Amino acid sequence: MERGFRTIHGAFLELQNQGKVRTSNPQKLTKDDIAAFMEWMRTRRTRTGLSLAHSTQANYMDYLNGFLRFESNGVIDQMRKLHYVRFPQKVQGEVKVLTESRLEELRFKLRTMPGYEGAVARFMVAMYAYSGLRRSELRLSRLEDLRLDTWTILVAHPKGESSWAAAAPAQILPPARDTVREFLRERRRYLRASGVSSCEALVPKISNGVAGYWTDGMWGKVKAAAVEWSGIRFRIQALRATFGQMSIDWGCRLDAVSRALRHKTTRTTELYYARIRSDHAFRLLEEAYEGAHQGSAK
């Protein structure tokens, strides 16, 4: 949301300099100013050369409308009621995931990434892709949260922990388990080499002789280093979605996948993380038909 507001602010300053809006004062924006901003969104190109996604445009309008309401300016609400202009709608896009073969190619290439950073990168990819943890959930995990006897990890800092979410375990699937064992050995060597006897963090980071948790920025740099080393672009969120999609592709029930991802409803799972593919759905339909008509065929 913060990034979105920075983009909106920059857009209105740009439009004001071009004479396309009269003001950037949120209390004085008019229907024409809002229409100019919407045209800016429609024609803006991203770094990839593509236009802004409809969902992104819809989010920017929601952010702007909320802010204008706070400033006692109901211009967007009025435009919606009067159908003054067609507003961008959120559309259900494709879930961005890695294929299982691409994921394993990424993991294979990271085997040669040197040092403790390489061990962290391999651990990071394996855990996100085969346990479905969110970015901060792994970064803030404690050593005591990991249970090798049951191959689970307690998510002690889930999304929404201060309001609606409670700590819950996540399952670590078999493909990640050797990587977990390897990382724990590297972790011990890393701490021992720095003269540190123990650390609460599952993935420790030593700065100025003190072991603690990684900052989000430094965590992102490890991921960026993994991308550079492997030559395979990926996002951490895409690895979580990959976990969900692979589970669906393996034939796991949607409600079980949703529970593993710790979603409140399967709708969230289907919208943003995993949904049954057409070829899989067609195969299940064929199998259901054959099973239902097996007796009559005889």
Sequence-ordered SSE layout with sheet pairings:
Layout: H1 2-17, H2 31-43, H3 54-70, H4 75-82, H5 100-110, H6 115-131, H7 135-139, E1 146-147, E2 152-155, E3 168-171, H8 177-193, E4 205-207, E5 210-212, H9 216-230, H10 236-249, H11 254-260, H12 266-272, H13 278-292, H14 294-297
Antiparallel strand pairs: 1-2, 2-3, 4-5
Helix pairs in contact: 6-8, 6-9, 6-10, 11-12
CATH level 1 name of the largest domain: Mainly Alpha
Strand content: 5-15%
Biggest pleated sheet? 3 strands, antiparallel
The total domain count is 2
Helix/strand structural class = mainly alpha
Instruction: Provide the helix percentage.
Output: 55-70%
Quote the CATH topology of the largest domain: hpI Integrase, Chain A
Given as residue ranges, the uncertain stretches (5+ residues, pLDDT < 50) are: none
Radius of gyration: 24 Å
Q: Which overall shape is indicated by the principal axes computed on the Cα atoms?
A: globular
Strand tally: 5
First-residue to last-residue Cα separation: 61 Å
What would you say this structure looks like, in words?
The chain starts with a helix and ends with a helix. The model has no long low-confidence stretch (mean pLDDT 88). The chain is mainly α. Strand 4 (205-207) and strand 5 (210-212) form a beta hairpin. Strands 1-2-3 form a three-stranded antiparallel sheet, with no helix packed on it. The protein has a two-stranded antiparallel ribbon with strand order 4-5. The longest helix is centred in the N-terminal third of the chain and has 17 residues, at 54-70. The chain has helices spanning 2-17, 31-43, 54-70, 75-82, 100-110, 115-131, 135-139, 177-193, 216-230, 236-249, 254-260, 266-272, 278-292, 294-297; strands at 146-147, 152-155, 168-171, 205-207, 210-212. Helix 6 (115-131) packs antiparallel against helix 8 (177-193) and helix 6 (115-131) packs across helix 9. It has two domains: 2-82, no CATH class; 100-256, hpI Integrase, Chain A (Orthogonal Bundle).
